[in-house]
Amino acid sequence: MARTRGFSINLAERCIVITGGNRGIGLAISQACAKAGARVAIIYRSSRDADKVAQDIAKDTGTQCQAYQCDVSDTDLVVKTLKRIDSEMGPITGLVANAGVSVVKPALELTKDDFEKVYNVNVLGVFNTARAAAELWVKQEHQGGSIVITASMSSQIINQAGTNKPLTQVFYNSSKAAVSNLVKGVAAEWAGHGIRVNALSPGYVETDQTSGMDQKIRDYQATHLPLGRFAKPHEMAPMALLLLSEHASYMTGQEYFVDGGQLVY
Ligand code: NDP
């Protein structure tokens, strides 16, 4: 059972699917869900150690945790994989659509391949997994199901990846703005089936995605954040757990920022 101040979040009897759940923010959410008692299915693309990561979580928490290889941009494979998880570990009760990629290049150098690389995962991949989960719940007349989509504070602002001249990750930022709007649309359409959909939007988090940033840029960014530092991945987990739990039974169609105050600055 995961405890926060004042109340605890218990996900026992739940089965949560987490895309990109083997690394970074997704891994922190996988670990927190397992600690809260959920059975956890991790979807990954190509990491070699995903099975070992899942075994370690299962060993540490005593719950069931398994890794499934699936490229979220492959619509048919996503449907098959969610059905497989549902029959092997389910019924699935929650999804964290978290897998995401970025291309950092000046806008004048971006190509169609770069566009497809980013949008096929960050937008199509998110939609594929969300729809596959919703379809399962609607077909099974399962009243309920919570979907948490990892967007980004860059859905709202142009985050700066350069120090002295603008470098803004145009495709990444715009893909996150797309997802922020997608959340509202599917939340409205699926609410009648008892399905809640929300976005968790992190600020800068110390993961592989940000480890490639130039140290000068990291320092510049960190000192310009109200909390003065990047987040640790585990600092994203409480919001995901809350949105997956029954405590969030009246929360849908919203975007929740966990960004160290970046958006107010
Ligand atoms: P990481 O780069 O650390 O990990 C990315 C994860 O996504 C990996 O598990 C990877 O699997 C998986 N993945 C990538 N492409 C696919 C695919 N096609 N199919 C299935 N899985 C895939 O990411 P972060 O933890 O940093 O980010 C997680 C989410 O949070 C992303 O959506 C990101 O955009 C968002 N975010 C991150 C921020 C940050 O500062 N780090 C800030 C704001 C938002 P594999 O290991 O197999 O490659």
Features:
alpha/beta, Rossmann fold, 7-stranded parallel sheet, 16% strand, globular, binds NADPH dihydro-nicotinamide-adenine-dinucleotide phosphate, Sc_DH/Rdtase_CS, oxidoreductase, SDR_fam, NADP-dependent mannitol dehydrogenase
Outline the structure in words.
This is NADP-dependent mannitol dehydrogenase. This protein is 41% helix and 16% strand. It has a single domain (10-256), classed as NAD(P)-binding Rossmann-like Domain (Rossmann fold), CATH 3.40.50. A 7-stranded parallel β-sheet has the order 5-4-3-6-7-8-9, with helices on both faces. With 265 residues, it is of the alpha/beta class. Strand 7 (146-150), helix 5 (170-190) and strand 8 (196-202) form a beta-alpha-beta unit. The chain binds NADPH dihydro-nicotinamide-adenine-dinucleotide phosphate (NDP). The site of NADPH dihydro-nicotinamide-adenine-dinucleotide phosphate (NDP) has 30 residues, from helix 1, strand 4, helix 4 and helix 6.
Record the SSE blueprint.
Blueprint: E1 2-4, E2 7-9, E3 15-19, H1 24-35, E4 39-44, H2 50-61, E5 65-69, H3 75-89, E6 94-97, H4 112-139, E7 146-150, H5 170-190, E8 196-202, H6 208-211, H7 215-223, H8 237-244, E9 255-258
Parallel strand pairs: 3-4, 3-6, 4-5, 6-7, 7-8, 8-9
Antiparallel strand pairs: 1-2
Helix pairs in contact: 1-2, 1-8, 3-4, 4-5
The structure holds NADPH dihydro-nicotinamide-adenine-dinucleotide phosphate.
